[in-house]
Amino acid sequence: MSDALLITVAPTGAETAKADCPQLPTTPEEIARTAAECEAAGAAMIHIHVRDTSHQPTLDQALLREWVAAVRESSSLVVQLSTGGSVHDPLEERLKVLDAEPDSCSLTMGTTNFGDDVFLNPWPFVKDLYQLALSRGVAPEFELFDLGQVHALDRLLREYGIPDGGKVHVDFVMGVPGGMPGTAPALVAGVTALPPEVTSWSATGIGRSTLSVAMASLSMGGHLRVGMEDVLTISRGVPVESNAQLVERAVDLGRIAQREPMTPAGCRELLGLG
Ligand code: KMH
Ligand code: ZN
């Protein structure tokens, strides 16, 4: 792994209601401001879930394009669109996310229980999405919610090869009720099982696992994803004020590990984007 620390910010997600968390960025103006603040704080990539004018999650193509444009105008962050969407989004619409021409897209390697819901990622969908990303030159970030998904990634790469850019970047999403726990031993197991083609990895811990996963990742030379998609408190009972606050904390943790934040240009290189 490189010494520079990739910090990806996941500022919105699809699970939190604006009414419960007014500081959640849910409009083009708010996402543009968030992107600028998070880049200034040290983020290099943004993982985006779009909301509609009622602040509800949407995969509406016009809004996807509007949000991508807003982030590109206000920052030079690498733009990653979520193809996971919300647990209610149909698979066909999730494939069409790539029409909005992001730099990168999330690609979850298997179906996961997600609290009381099911986050559906059947194998044919995974294969279709991967081939689409390859054909469009969109860099996939493989999301791994469970150890079995690490092995599914191995199978996918064996069947379809690696992206033209020569890079394979994955992100461990830990602590989802239904997925692997957000613990150091679980991260060690996941990293140990990664296929040899993987060139970089990051990790994020949901909710109260956020700090233990971040510190475990840094101790193993990994990168970090942070943001209000994954955690809404900065410490027990204290709400997060902004996504930039979480990025700042990640930068501070990285500096303790003697890792300086990666620039967006460094992230493009890490992802094999031309
Ligand atoms: N909202 C979750 C059901 C992704 O962005 O690719 C799925 C998710 C993963 O957040
Ligand atoms: Zn997401």
TrEMBL record:
This is 3-keto-5-aminohexanoate cleavage protein. The lineage of its organism: Bacteria, Bacillati, Actinomycetota, Actinomycetes, Propionibacteriales. It comes from Nocardioides ganghwensis. The keyword Heme does not apply. The keyword Repeat does not apply. Gene3D superfamilies: Aldolase class I. Its cofactor is Zn(2+). One of its GO terms (molecular function) is 3-keto-5-aminohexanoate cleavage activity. Keywords: Metal-binding, Transferase, Zinc. InterPro entries: Aldolase_TIM, BKACE.
